[in-house]
Amino acid sequence: MNSGGFIQENFSIFQASHEGSWAILAILFLVAYFLFRGGKSKAGTIIHMIARLFFVIMLVTGASMLIAYQFAYFFFIKGLLAVLLIGFMEAALGKAKRNENSLGMLFAVLVVLVVIVLMGYGIIRF
Ligand code: HEM
């Protein structure tokens, strides 16, 4: 089994899926969040489930590229932040659904999301 070869050969597929999915995830998150905030729990739950599918897409495609980049420090940090982001998104949606104060978590999601996207496009670099 040569998984390195597989990832190298399909790198552009992972990259295109990653780049094409992040904005969809961001929109799904916001729609689910405001559905929950508006008391539309059932519709919110459906969108939340679709958002979770996009968590998996982002994790699998991102982790594949990270392996291809041999865990380069910068992208490793970006990946860690992305895992944190997914945790914040889950926390914000859970709080919104339970009608708890969720504004702080929403703010955390937006800040970390902006940082990750700027890192992805190389605007923030180190
Ligand atoms: C859900 C949160 C995530 C968001 C919003 C996000 C966003 C982005 C964006 C906008 C790019 C630039 C796309 C491009 O030019 O191709 C990118 C690239 C990248 N991401 Fe993510 N990402 C997320 C999750 C992850 C995770 C979990 C990992 C790793 C485990 C990861 C690893 C990478 C790598 C290695 C690249 C560089 C690809 C390249 O060379 O273009 N990302 N990400």
Provide structural commentary:
There is one protein chain. With 126 residues, this protein is mainly α. The protein has one domain. Helices cover 83% and strands 0% of the residues. It has helices at 3-9, 11-37, 41-68, 73-97, 103-120. The radius of gyration is 16 Å and the shape is elongated. The mean pLDDT is 97. Bound molecules: protoporphyrin IX containing FE (HEM). Protoporphyrin IX containing FE binds next to helix 2, helix 3, helix 4 and helix 5.
Sum this structure up briefly.
The protein has 126 residues and is mainly α.
Give the key terms.
single chain, 126 residues, mainly alpha, 5 helices, 83% helix, binds protoporphyrin IX containing FE
Element-by-element helix/strand order: HHHHH
Distance between the termini: 35 Å
Decide which structural class fits the backbone.
mainly alpha
Shape: elongated
Q: List the domain count as a whole number.
A: 1
The rounded Rg comes to 16 Å
Number of strands: 0
Flag low-confidence runs. none
> Can you give the helix content as a percent range?
over 70%
What is the average of the pLDDT values? 97
The distinct bound ligands, ions and cofactors come out as:
protoporphyrin IX containing FE
Instruction: Tell me the strand percentage band.
Output: under 5%
Describe the biggest sheet? none
SS summary, helix count:
5
InterPro entries: UPF0344 (IPR010899)
Subcellular location: Cell membrane
Protein name: UPF0344 protein CHH61_09355
Pfam families: DUF1516 (PF07457)
